[in-house]
From TrEMBL:
<dbReference type="Pfam" id="PF00083">
    <property type="entry name" value="Sugar_tr"/>
</dbReference>
<feature type="domain" description="Major facilitator superfamily (MFS) profile">
    <location>
        <begin position="51"/>
        <end position="516"/>
    </location>
</feature>
<keyword id="KW-0812">Transmembrane</keyword>
<feature type="transmembrane region" description="Helical">
    <location>
        <begin position="54"/>
        <end position="74"/>
    </location>
</feature>
<keyword id="KW-1133">Transmembrane helix</keyword>
<dbReference type="GO" id="GO:0016020">
    <property type="term" value="C:membrane"/>
</dbReference>
<dbReference type="InterPro" id="IPR005828">
    <property type="entry name" value="MFS_sugar_transport-like"/>
</dbReference>
<feature type="transmembrane region" description="Helical">
    <location>
        <begin position="430"/>
        <end position="451"/>
    </location>
</feature>
<feature type="transmembrane region" description="Helical">
    <location>
        <begin position="219"/>
        <end position="237"/>
    </location>
</feature>
<feature type="transmembrane region" description="Helical">
    <location>
        <begin position="378"/>
        <end position="398"/>
    </location>
</feature>
<feature type="transmembrane region" description="Helical">
    <location>
        <begin position="405"/>
        <end position="424"/>
    </location>
</feature>
<keyword id="KW-0813">Transport</keyword>
<dbReference type="InterPro" id="IPR020846">
    <property type="entry name" value="MFS_dom"/>
</dbReference>
<dbReference type="InterPro" id="IPR036259">
    <property type="entry name" value="MFS_trans_sf"/>
</dbReference>
<feature type="transmembrane region" description="Helical">
    <location>
        <begin position="322"/>
        <end position="347"/>
    </location>
</feature>
<keyword id="KW-0472">Membrane</keyword>
<feature type="transmembrane region" description="Helical">
    <location>
        <begin position="94"/>
        <end position="111"/>
    </location>
</feature>
């Protein structure tokens, strides 16, 4: 009789109206049915203190990603004065994006094969150690190599963190993944405060006309040391503040039914919540990836890994609808990967006068903001980035707007503010427009993070995310090359950004899948 009930449960799960599972696991009905049962169990348990802790620890990855990017940007120019020795001026930026690109691809592809937990606990540690070592660089090549390594470590965060959070989160709280991107602004602001503090000591940073040494140019090193130490603390908190098990969605997609049931029942018991999922219910649905397991049973480890990787990539194109969605998501990540850095080309090369003032200086003769004004404006605009994802999380939960139109609204407003920025004539306008842009860019960006994770099927989620973020980094690398030849005193890069964000708004509006109100696969 029990077996009959289990089969009924499995059939009921197979007919549940959850479009993501239908799209993502169309080639594997066993995985589709099991995923629905796991979703029902996660929704039954609901939101707990475990999820609250995890949202903070996963948010550290967003903060670290933006922290390392901005630390490098404010430290590289002073490092170049001391140890550049005629090397490529934007070499550190190119090294960072190369590391981020390789890291996104490596951690994304591997996490679908070996699990999410290892990468989650490793990426920040690698990034923190590499950041500290980069601060001790004695030549430009050494510095750039370890900047690339810190990018490699941090590059997995934007792939893994929304994925891990999503795969534990009940459907009603999936808006948290969008809000979590607010940590990106925390990382940016932290980098600003760190740099502001050290560069305020004039004796700790040299000028282009003087000989720069460790003694008279220590600010950039202290910036890297402090940022690396902060990331190390985040890494330790990830390891010791919360015992993170493997995600239930990965376990079910890899056929570990017993571990899935044990994990969810332990979570429910710890927080005094119900959980009616049984091992018999999952086993009644069949075996996940049975054909693939039989096909690869006699293969070598390398051939098996290659076969699995090909299967994960193929799984992102399982239906026409999913294939179109995958392509459009990847295009969106490429567009924002170029559009976002183009605005920051307006950051001048001199780290002690960093501000969105290159265009303003060309329009207001004699305009030279004080040290305090420039760093104040920089910090304010970066703090504003925190609020973009929070606004996006609220808008995306409006039924008739959803995720797609939230992104479209964010991109459209950003394009409008970019256009407005071409008319700035005063420092107050400069600060107001740059702060608005910082907020609105992250309405789009924060939603895109969450939407990508929600749409990609669980079995192939980090492969899809990793490829998307990797394409994003390639475009960021291109922006570093553009910055060498671009004239930042003209409005041309801004008009290009306007066009890019207008295109992003259109692409978001035509996404074929709306994830509002649905459990992710």
């Amino acid at each position: 009789m029990a077996a009959t009930n289990d089969n009924i449960s499995c059939r009921a799960a197979s007919t549940t109206n959850l479009p993501h599972d239908v799209l993502g696991n169309v080639a594997d009905p066993a995985l589709s049915a099991k995923t629905r049962l796991v979703n029902e169990a996660i929704n039954e348990i609901g939101w707990t203190s475990f999820h609250l802790k995890l949202s903070c620890l996963a948010g550290f990855g967003f903060a670290a990603d933006s922290l390392v990017a901005f630390l490098q940007s404010v430290a590289a120019s002073q490092a170049y004065l001391e140890i550049g020795n005629g090397g490529y001026r934007t070499g550190a930026t190119m090294a960072l994006y190369a590391g981020l690109q390789i890291g996104a691809l490596f951690w994304g592809l591997s996490a679908d094969m070996i699990g999410r937990r290892i990468a989650f606990q490793t990426t920040l540690l690698i990034g923190s150690i590499a950041t500290i070592i980069a601060g001790a660089g004695t030549n430009w090549v050494f510095f750039c190599v370890f900047v690339a390594l810190l990018g490699f470590g941090a590059g997995g965060n934007l792939v893994l963190d929304p994925t891990i959070m999503l795969e534990f989160t009940p459907a009603k709280q999936q808006w948290v993944i969008t809000a979590m991107a607010g940590w990106w602004g925390v990382g940016q602001a932290s980098a600003g405060f760190i740099a502001w503090g050290y560069y305020s000591r004039a004796e700790w940073s040299c000028g282009a006309s003087t000989e720069c040494t460790w003694q008279n140019n220590k600010a950039w090193r202290l910036i890297m040391f402090t940022g690396g130490a902060l990331m190390l603390v985040m890494s330790l908190l990830r390891s010791f503040a919360l015992h993170l098990p493997e995600t239930p969605k990965y376990l079910v997609s890899s056929g570990q039914d017993e571990q899935v049931v044990s994990l969810l029942h332990k979570l429910a018991s710890k927080h005094n919540r119900p959980c009616s999922l049984t091992l018999e219910q999952l086993q009644a649905c069949g075996t996940v990836n049975q054909e693939l397991q039989e096909e690869t049973a006699q293969m070598s480890a390398i051939r098996r890994a290659a076969k699995q990787l090909a299967g994960h990539l193929k799984g992102l194109f399982g239906t026409r609808k999913l294939a179109l969605s995958t392509i459009l998501i990847w295009i969106s990540w490429m567009l924002i990967g170029l559009g976002y850095p183009l605005f920051f080309l307006y950051l001048p090369a001199d780290s002690k006068t960093i501000s969105f003032s290159a265009l303003l200086s060309s329009r207001v003769p004699g305009y030279e903001p004080s040290f305090t004004e420039t760093w104040r404006d920089y910090t304010i605009s970066n703090i504003c980035a925190i609020f973009g994802p929070l606004i996006a999380a609220a808008i995306a939960e409006v039924k008739w707007i959803g995720r797609r139109y939230t992104m479209s609204i964010g991109a459209t407003i950003t394009a409008a503010f970019f256009l407005g920025y071409t008319y700035i004539k005063t420092p107050a306008q400069n600060l107001a427009l740059s702060s608005c842009i910082s907020t609105c860019i992250n309405i789009y960006y924060g939603t895109l993070y969450a939407y990508s994770a929600e749409v990609f099927p669980s079995a192939h989620r980090t492969t899809g995310n990793g490829t998307a973020v990797s394409l994003n980094r390639i475009m960021g690398l291109l922006s570093a090359v553009i910055s060498v030849t671009a004239d930042t005193t003209t409005v041309t890069p801004l008009y290009v950004s306007v066009a890019l964000f207008a295109l992003m708004a259109i692409v978001a509006a035509i996404f074929p899948i709306e994830t509002y109100g649905k459990s992710a696969s």
